[in-house]
């Protein structure tokens, strides 16, 4: 089992405090959902964990099996097993999807354990079939001209290929129709297991009908205001954030 511990994390952007003390422990074999209104700091949490330089950690710790993540360079974090699916994936012209994926997978492997072309192609075919992606998408430049839904699917493809220990999935459901949502959920569910944990950031309960979270956190104003089981997401859907704000913090 691996553990990602976030302890009293404070993060500022351009001198303004956005995260005001976040505590959260994620284990492998668990899926946690983070919900919360726009601007609550959900993406900030993911970006700070991955080491985006625009986000200044002013206090607190992030530990991956006791190792200080905040001391690591960004690429070290990825090699250590952290993965971030961003809200707005960027386009990288000139780099094909397949070559990007193979490089990302090999970055996590030892010199004598690099993945060969055949093995890579076999795995890629399998994962793309799972996500119902046309084969030609492997040869297109990374995210270039991809629709919103294709970009989201491609983020999950990366996750399936790289097999991180912990995946932070930021709004992988935004802009998806119901079919695409189910496909993306299928990909995440395929990753579930002893070697994998995930933090799913979403605005909507809808995604959580397809990816059953073990724990739901509600972030408000830079803090985790509530944590509970999957029923918390349903309560939120029914009552809205204002409704929740009048109930006691659960845990
Ligand atoms: P969420 O993902 O919960 O919608 P964010 O983490 O994106 O929230 O944003 C939290 C707050 O930080 C918001 O008030 C937002 O305007 C601010 N913020 C986010 N990114 C930046 C940035 N690059 N520069 C300045 N302010 C930012
Ligand atoms: Mg937002
Ligand atoms: Mg966000």
TrEMBL record:
Q: Which Pfam families match?
A: ABC_tran
**Which InterPro entries does the protein's record reference?**
AAA+_ATPase, ABC_transporter-like_ATP-bd, ABC_transporter-like_CS, FeS-cluster_ATPase_SufC, P-loop_NTPase
Cite the ABC transporter domain residue spans from the record: 4-246
Q: Where is the signal peptide?
A: none
Task: Provide the GO MF annotations for this entry.
Answer: ATP binding; ATP hydrolysis activity
Give the highest taxon in the source lineage.
Bacteria
UniProt xrefs under SUPFAM superfamilies: P-loop containing nucleoside triphosphate hydrolases
Keyword terms of this UniProt record: ATP-binding, Nucleotide-binding
Q: What family name appears in the similarity comment?
A: Belongs to the ABC transporter superfamily. Ycf16 family.
Instruction: Name it.
Output: Fe-S cluster assembly ATPase SufC
Please tell me the species this chain comes from.
Fundicoccus ignavus
Organism classification, top ranks?
Bacteria, Bacillati, Bacillota, Bacilli, Lactobacillales
* Gene that encodes the chain: sufC
């Amino acid at each position: 089992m691996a553990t990602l511990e976030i302890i009293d994390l404070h993060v500022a952007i351009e001198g303004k405090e956005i995260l005001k003390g976040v505590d959260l422990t994620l284990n492998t074999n668990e899926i946690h959902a983070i919900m919360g209104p726009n601007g609550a700091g959900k993406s900030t949490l993911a970006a700070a964990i991955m080491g985006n330089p625009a986000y200044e950690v002013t206090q607190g710790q992030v530990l991956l099996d006791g190792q200080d993540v905040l001391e690591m360079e960004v690429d070290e974090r990825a090699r250590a097993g952290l993965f971030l699916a961003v809200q707005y994936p960027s386009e990288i012209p000139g780099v094909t999807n397949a070559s990007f994926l193979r490089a990302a997978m090999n970055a996590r492997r030892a010199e004598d354990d690099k993945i060969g072309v055949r093995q890579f192609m076999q795995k890629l075919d399998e994962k793309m079939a799972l996500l119902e992606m046309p084969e030609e998408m492997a040869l297109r430049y990374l995210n270039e001209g991809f629709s919103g839904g294709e970009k989201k699917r491609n983020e999950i493809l990366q996750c399936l290929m790289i097999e991180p220990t912990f995946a932070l999935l930021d709004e992988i459901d935004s802009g998806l129709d119901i079919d695409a949502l189910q496909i993306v959920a299928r990909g995440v569910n395929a990753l579930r297991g002893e070697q994998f944990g995930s933090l799913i950031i979403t605005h909507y309960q809808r995604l959580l009908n397809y990816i059953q979270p073990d724990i739901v956190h509600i972030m408000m104003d830079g803090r985790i205001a509530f944590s509970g089981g999957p029923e918390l997401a349903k309560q939120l859907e029914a009552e809205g954030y204002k409704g929740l704000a009048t109930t006691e913090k659960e845990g």
